[in-house]
Specification:
Arc Repressor Mutant, subunit A, three-stranded antiparallel beta sheet, Four Helix Bundle (Hemerythrin (Met), subunit A), globular, 2 domains, about 230 residues, single chain, mainly alpha
Length: about 230
């Protein structure tokens, strides 16, 4: 690969990372327009890497491309999220069971570090850091499961999961459930880890629905985003 091609790939990756974070953190809201020209100016690159980044985010399910040179941030429907929950309730119990059975000490230490970040940021109502740490927790579990095919399947829904995990405001409750999951993995109790993971998906679904209703009625509490 030529240096010019490598630079384009690097710029596309950076642009995709930048846009992905903006979408997942809520800076770019669902339904908002993403215009190549404007994004290129904002990010300081040509339109080509921006176009590549938008195609990548379309594949991840975060944006919908429109004719010519723009896209919109995807708005997930209740059916989209129900589909995701169904897939998670199959894959995540397996991931947590395997993580409990196969984890190594260094991996467990990384999982503990993500959990501590989540707990501290939840305690101080730092929603952005807490939600990112919660997503990191789930992704580290998949790494600890040490199953290549499972990793590929979970990677395919990674961005959608990160988005879904951000759709709640009860940061402390989710962190407490992660503590129980961590303890099951630490104790190498695969049955407990699997059962807790299944229940955790259902709990996350209820928190997400409650958060959406609070937003609709204007009763959502104010939490810091950074």
């Amino acid at each position: 690969m030529s240096s010019r091609s490598e630079e384009r790939v690097l710029e596309s990756t950076r642009a995709a990372d930048w846009l992905r974070d903006a979408i997942l953190d809520g800076t770019r809201e669902a339904g908002s327009r993403l215009i190549e020209r404007d994004l290129a100016t904002e990010f300081g690159v040509s339109r080509v890497p921006v176009r590549d980044a938008l195609k990548l985010l379309e594949a991840e399910g975060l944006v919908e491309l429109r004719p010519r040179t723009w896209a919109i941030v995807r708005e997930f429907t209740p059916n989209d999220l129900a589909d995701l929950d169904e897939v998670r309730q199959v894959l995540e119990p397996m991931a947590f069971r395997l993580a409990a059975e196969r984890h190594r000490r260094d991996g467990l230490d990384r999982l503990r570090a993500a959990l501590e970040d989540e707990q501290e940021s939840a305690r101080t109502a730092n929603s952005r850091v807490s939600r990112r740490a919660a997503a990191d927790f789930h992704e580290i579990v998949v790494e600890l499961a040490d199953n290549k095919l499972l990793g590929e399947l979970m990677n395919g829904i990674r961005s959608r999961m990160r988005w879904a995990l951000a759709q709640h405001d009860d940061l402390q409750h989710i962190a407490e459930e992660h503590v129980a999951l961590y303890e099951a993995i630490r104790d190498r109790d695969g049955d407990r880890a699997s059962a807790l993971a299944y229940a955790h998906v259902d709990s996350s679904r209820r928190e997400r629905i409650a958060h959406a209703e609070a937003l609709r009625t204007g009763t959502v509490p104010v939490v810091r985003a950074d």
